[in-house]
Amino acid sequence: MHVPDGFINAPVSAAAGVVAAGAVAVSLRGARRELDERTAPLAGLVAAFVFAAQMLNFPVAAGTSGHLLGGALAAILVGPFTGVLCLSVVLLMQGILFADGGLTALGVNITVMGVVTTVVGYAVFRALVKVLPKKRPSITVSAFVAALLSVPAAAAAFTLVYAVGGTTDVPIGQVLTAMVGVHLLIGIGEATITALTVGAVIAVRPDLVYGARGLTAPLKLRVNGELVDAPAAEPVPVAARSPRKLLLAGLVTSLLLAGFVSFYASANPDGLEKVAADKGIDAKAEDHAAADSPLADYGVQGITDSRLSGGLAGVIGVGVTVVAGTGVFWAVRRRRTGGTSPASTSDIPGNA
Asked: 30 — alpha (psi -120 to 50), left (phi > 0) or beta?
């Protein structure tokens, strides 16, 4: 759903840039409460994983494909404020290095793909976990529904932006119907990836999943015929619960997805590209300012073998994103002043 240059006029693009900058500023402050010495590197990895997964377009309808947006996934794993920062890092890397998403439309992309998906996804997730049983499956079910709804929400947000600042005269009702319809289908793929990823992390390290914090019901013991709360278990020291293995596994997975699996991604246009072509939204689309970048269009300039070129570009992208993201999150973490570290997370039932 990367919006290119020329879809949205300059005043509205500038306004969206102000909104995006405000959201990032608020998220920088909020992320200080979400990050600790374990989750800061995890957040960098989440950004790299989202980057890699966005290279994997999957077919959703005749002549149309979709890819992960990742807002709900990032929010559930590392927190909503940190999630906005994760998506902002990814979109910045894609726009500058890979000519994916217009530079003048960067504010639109961060607002639509980063802020809307994260806020909607996490709000739906939190609402569901409050009413569902406090069990591990409830987390993955909530993640599935949250991710599913976040994608058409982003499509509707783009339509709203286009209604205000679109550069072509297109019936907005038709755009809304087409955008929400195709992105609801894309949302199914998004939901599947999100639920599988969240479920996999919960299976090995539930204490690192931000969205699972505080969801464990207190253990009850029967004493003299009455149920009483069991004494809280001693927290496991941070040093004894190093996320190193999870981080290594996630990094290897991201590199494989971007460097190898991406070669088999669908070549069909994604939802926005398809709707733009069908409805005439792209009539005034402009060439990307970074079209001559050595990594433009996810290929390495000068390498003629498409498999090698795309795979190497993907590996470079994962590396740059994980380094940039981790650097940002460590800096945010170090700027945190006062208070205590985020509360230790409780295991999901069944992970004693």
From this structure: alpha
pLDDT bucket at 335, cuts 50 / 70 / 90: confident
Rounded Cα gap, residues 133 and 131, in angstroms: 7
Can you read off the two tokens belonging to residue 114? 């980063």
**This prediction's pTM:** 0.88
Residue type, 88: S
Whether the Cβ atoms of residue 279 and residue 175 lie closer than 8 Å to each other = yes
Q: What are phi and psi of 216, to 5 degrees?
A: -80, 125
Residue 352 has pLDDT above 80, yes or no: no
Quote the distance between the C-alpha of residue 15 and its chain's center.
23
| Integer Cα distance of 4 and 288 in angstroms | 7
Structure tokens at 198: 């969240």
Return d(Cα 162, Cα 170) in angstroms, integer.
9
CA dist 97 and 298 (Å) reads 9
Residue 221 burial (CB count, 10 A): 10
- Give the whole-angstrom CA distance, residue 255 versus residue 92: 19
Closest CA to 329 of 80, 35, 16: 35
User: What is the set of domains in the chain, with CATH numbers?
Assistant: 10-26+45-216+242-324 (1.10.1760.20)
What residues contact 197, with CB distance under 8 A and at least 6 apart? 49, 73, 77
Q: What are phi and psi of 223, to 5 degrees?
A: -125, 120
For residues 87 and 31, the answer to whether their CB atoms sit within 8 Å is: no
Each residue's pLDDT tens digit, 30-40: 999 999 887 88
CA–CA distance, 297 with 287 (Å, rounded to integer): 12
The structure tokens listed for 50 are 């989202």
Question: What spatial distance separates the first Cα and last Cα of the chain, rounded to whole Å?
Answer: 41
Measured between alpha carbons, how far is 90 from 95 in angstroms, rounded to an integer?
Answer: 9
